[in-house]
Amino acid sequence: MTALPFLAAILAFVLFGLATDQHHGKRFRRACPRGRAIRLRATAWTLLALAFALSMIAWGAVFGPIGWFASIISGAALAFAALNFIPLPARRPRG
Amino acid sequence: MSKGFRQSQATLHTWSGLLVGWVLFIVFVTGTAAYWREALNRWAQPELPPIEQPARVVRGAQLLLQRDAADAASWFITVPSTRSASGSVFWVPGAKAPPTPGETSARIDANGAKVVARATLGGDFFYRFHFDLHYVPYYVARWIVGICAMFMLVAILSGIVTHKKIFRDFFTFRGGKGQRSWLDGHNAVAVLGLPFHLMITYTGLVTLMTLLMPWAAVANYSAPFSMGRLLYPEAPAVPRADRPAPLVDLAAVLRDGERRLGAPVDIISVTAPGDASARILLSQSNHGTLSSLTPRLTYDGVSGRLLWAAPLPGAAAVTAGAMIGVHAGRFADAAIRWVYFLCGIGGSVMVASGLLLWSVKRREKLPDPARPPFGFRLVERLNIGFVAGFPAAMVGFLWANRLLPLTLPTRAEAEINAMFVLWGVLLLHAFLRRPRRAWVEQLALTAALLLALPLFDMLATARGLPATIAAGDATLAGVDLTLIALGLAYAAIARGVHRHVPARRRSRSRARA
């Protein structure tokens, strides 16, 4: 049960990261179109809200907010590491 | 105007960070280790069996106290949890005791027997050092740590202002670019862990608030102990009856208290044990509750009847208690504890990278890199001695726990002295060697000490990694695995520093060639 808020937060921050031109460009080889950035960020915010609800369920009303912050910090750190340090898949040379 | 303000904040950030950075680093690192205080306590006394039934320890404690301290004025028993290494007792000798009483404390193991194990402070040492330092009176140490924490808060807040693109650069890391990479790394650990860093610094100051800002307490509670009595109320005191009466079974009272509180109890204190006026005070444990100010119950020591329950504390007291609770994280389950620990490492890396950034930034502007000014050299060497040397010395403390003879007098203190001797040697080493060599050697030493420790345990004790994994002892296996992971990380960093070729020097040597 405690794994769920962490998973939601990781996914949220990966989406936040992909909504930036820098990481979108790195992974998809083009800047992030405006509409897509808005959709990615909206989904990410929804996931953070979901992580809050899941934290309240996992840890209860007193520790839930602390667990939520714990999942946010972990999610941000893991997404940061994934976006910056997971190498890009080898690209096929274009003909 | 805004540029001037940001520039002033940048200057404030640089100097408030540098001046206290070294103390902050050791406070951060030991505080981080202290999140595993209980695990390290268990690790430090591998002779002890793990605790399965805390009530059994309490029964043993009562037997020991009735035998050795029957006439005491009061007893204090710490009730262990299943994570603790042992329970403990101490007593205040009664009026009939000789003026120089012998032993007045003991530790109790899982079977209720008096502990026969190596003398050590274990993880408690890192916990105490985190705010009491060592070799200095505790109030001086707390002032030092408190002032440094205030600088830290200033450094964090001015750092947020200085960081120009906190959201746009949130996911940015540009590796292999010298100062740029250092700044990105410093920003990343600072921003990613920002909620933790702000919380830990602010609540750390709250734990010391009556020391750092005593005026409100002094003005409002002038009578001695009046504030303490308000914060920690007690049942009305009763005069000693001087009529012997057997003390009720403490384990039964403990069971009743835990049922009423709905939470574990961690301290039992008994006044006038063995007398008809005996009273038992139970304090609820911090585990499983946010506020460090926990409810208490008083029982009649003869009948075992509940006499008094502490009134609910006021909102201000609960607020302070909750802040201290969030700081210490005693409530944390495994998942949140790991996040605390990793955030602590993040905070240590933030302080360390900030210190290093100071030299990295200035090195590029040195008029003569071969002969840097004294201030630059001092900072550079102190950075090595603190950032690389202190963690190495901490692992040295763990080695001293394993290597010092078990019968050594004042053994617990000797472990601590061993740590500081090693740290002293490493500080000296940092000043004597060329900086790059000193970094590599000290980082590699830390890696070697960390990696060899689980290996030593496997060969020399019955609690090596395979044994603890086979026994399903997640705590001890976790300590060993964490040491290995940290050792590998240190080895990777040492290798990275060793192989690193600074961009500027490379271009120079090319030019020379």
Description:
The complex is a heterodimer of chains A (95) and B (513). Chain A has 95 residues and is an all-alpha fold. Chain A has one domain (3-85). Helix content of chain A is 80%, strand content 0%. Chain A is built from 3 helices and no strands. Chain A has helices spanning 3-18, 21-28, 34-85. In chain A, helix 1 (3-18) crosses helix 3. Chain B is α+β, with helices and mostly antiparallel strands and 513 residues long. Chain B folds into 3 domains: 1-45 and 120-217 and 332-365; 54-117 and 234-310, no CATH class; 375-505, no CATH class. Chain B has 19 helices and 7 strands. Chain B has a 7-stranded antiparallel sheet with strand order 3-2-1-4-5-6-7. In chain B, helix 6 packs antiparallel against helix 13 (334-363). The radius of gyration of chain B is 26 Å and the shape is globular. The model of chain B is unreliable at 505-513 (pLDDT under 50).
According to DSSP, the number of beta strands of chain B is: 7
Strand content of chain B: 5-15%
Query: How much helicity do the residues of chain A have?
Result: over 70%
Output the strand order for the largest sheet of chain B. 3-2-1-4-5-6-7
H-E string of chain B: HHHEEEHHHHHHHHEEEEHHHHHHHH
